[in-house]
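Q: For a teaching session next week I want to show students how multiple molecules come together into a single three-dimensional assembly. I've collected the sequence lines for a complex. Could you give me the predicted structure tokens for the whole thing so I can convert them for display?
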Amino acid sequence: VPPRRRRADARRNHDLLVAAAREIFDEQGVDAPLDDVARRAGVGNATLYRHFPTRRDLVVEVYAGEVDALCAAAPGGTSGGPAAAAPGGDPVRALFDWLGAFAAHVAARRYLALAIPEDADGERGRLFDRWHAAMHDTAAALVERARAGGALRAGVTAPDLLALAYGIGLASGDPATVHRLLDLVRRGAGPPVAGAPPGG
Amino acid sequence: VPPRRRRADARRNHDLLVAAAREIFDEQGVDAPLDDVARRAGVGNATLYRHFPTRRDLVVEVYAGEVDALCAAAPGGTSGGPAAAAPGGDPVRALFDWLGAFAAHVAARRYLALAIPEDADGERGRLFDRWHAAMHDTAAALVERARAGGALRAGVTAPDLLALAYGIGLASGDPATVHRLLDLVRRGAGPPVAGAPPGG
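A: Of course. Below is the structure for the complete assembly, covering every listed component.
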């Protein structure tokens, strides 16, 4: 088999394994039998262990893929998802749509991050720092756009909105509830309206 | 010792033990040595075990006391805390002050509720139901007063505000952050202002 073909096969198996693991972990939890993951991906166990020598490696890869997809879903994101092609539109709606996706990510996928064990050489801390930075950068860019359009009150910051969306994701996994709670936050994040009482 | 005096002593020891346990659990966690609790309370171990035969009994009593105090702190509450003497004042401020106390309770004391183990006869579920009901009733009464004054937008409900405050308490234990995030929610919970754009 020529090297290029071998690399393409390896990439394909890697992606099949990560997609299968995401499904199996969501269905059975992060301690699901890895045999099930290999079977769902349609590869042998030897292939799974060659790509992911430990369960931790697989969990990290699944979670990293989720964070990448979340950040790429932001309109105007640098990762160039489908949404990146449409930089127009209401920047406040774009910000809160993304915060909704972030809350859903917290509700549905936080268990993966929590399942990554501590390690002696601090790899876990570096991964978490990198993921936090990616999500904060994405939120900050969306906040910046909304603020530039005058659609956010001064003092409403990306870290505060992320903290609220994080808390909402922890408090509820129900999409309708998440949407309603974020809508309440969105109203509070708007600029003061002429004629409104001070602090109102 | 006359019976009345014996009952007063027992009550006093009970209260000393609960107060000591709250401090020790906060300092050392819920698995702290119970000897330390007895020592802090100034009673013997036999007295502790007579009042609280199991660690679970003690944790339940500490947490129940926290929920009672939280609900009693609501202005106009039926439990008659100091705040109950002052039914006047701004009902929206009263509501959000209490939501702040609730978020602080979640941040600081949720570990106690989580430490109560499941039991075969469903006692844990009944306790949780009772505590949830007490907190929901308290929030509902505060929301009702704020709504009666026209100071809350229609559709802003006690369960939604509790979910937001719960999430805020999970997201941050820092009092200044909790205050800032609740302030954002408070602005969003207000009634629409004349001249504001639809949905703004």
